[in-house]
Design a protein that fits this description.
The protein has helices at about 10-25, 35-45, 65-70, 85-90, 105-130, 180-185, 225-235, and strands spanning about 5-10, 30-35, 50-55, 75-80, 95-100, 135-140, 145-150, 155-160, 160-165, 170-175, 190-195, 200, 205-210, 210-215, 220. The protein is α/β, with parallel strands linked by helices and about 240 residues long. Helix 4 (about 85-90) links the parallel strand 4 and strand 5 (about 95-100). The radius of gyration is 24 Å and the shape is elongated. The N and C termini lie close together (about 5 Å).
Length: about 240
């Protein structure tokens, strides 16, 4: 997971400090630095950001007034030399409040708070979407139709126009269907295509090392074509 960050700050020295701190944290990506609120408003019209580091005391439009103009607030960490603005800032659901001069350890604590909030939001979203999909599909094996519960699937391997479906209970179902056809029936919140011949259950992944996925004492290949998407979906 990487948060796209915007700095809104009119002091060059304060900008440089924030830029340095952001560069030290892999979970943060600085995408723009604005000298005032007007520049930030213009930038946000055409760009999405996850986190704003916002100074309060700025000319023309101060930080609090800037917050009032936003319809959809990203995470906001206020940065200012004036502690009296803290209470008003929290009324706009800011994530944290940093007093200048900003110490690095305090900066990290504020960022970790935002990351925890984002992880919880992502988890809640996945749980909600999971509740909206069916929890099973039906698969035909020769003259038998099996009810496959997603929670019981370990991984699936392709063999031409057939697939082998490996279950947690070590039972294997062989079905005449292509991996691509079966993939279209599986919720992408629960399963990952890791290779031209493999699909795995996300929740059962134990670790990924080089081009291999470890899942319940099995080693599944991770194809170069799929690696970037796999890492994106598990938020790495």
């Amino acid at each position: 997971m990487q948060l796209k960050c915007l700095i809104v700050e009119d002091e060059k020295l304060a900008q440089d400090v924030l830029k340095k701190y952001i560069s030290l944290i892999p979970s943060l990506q600085l995408i723009q630095c604005c000298n005032n609120a007007s520049e930030a408003i213009s930038y946000l019209h055409s760009h999405k950001v996850d986190l704003i580091f916002l100074d309060i005391n700025m000319p023309e439009l101060n930080g609090i007034e800037f917050l009032k103009t936003l319809q959809h607030l990203p995470y906001v960490i206020i940065t200012t030399a004036y502690s009296e603005y803290a209470l008003e800032g929290y009324e706009y659901s800011v994530s944290d409040y940093l007093l200048k001069p900003i110490r690095y350890e305090r900066f990290v604590k504020a960022v970790n708070k935002v990351i925890d909030l984002e992880k919880k939001q992502l988890s809640d979203t996945i749980d909600k979407k999971s509740e909206e999909v069916d929890e099973f599909i039906f698969i035909k094996e020769e003259n038998t139709v099996h009810k496959l519960e997603f929670s019981q699937l370990l991984y699936i391997q392709a063999f031409g126009n057939y697939v082998k479906i490996f279950k947690i209970d070590e039972k294997v179902i062989v079905a005449r269907i292509t991996l691509t056809e079966l993939e279209s029936q599986l919720p992408d919140l629960l399963f990952l295509r890791t290779h031209k011949s493999y699909i795995v259950a996300i929740r059962l992944i134990e670790k990924i090392k080089n081009n291999e996925i470890f899942i319940q004492n099995k080693i599944i290949p991770l194809g170069n074509t799929y690696k970037q998407e796999v890492l994106r979906k598990i938020k790495i």
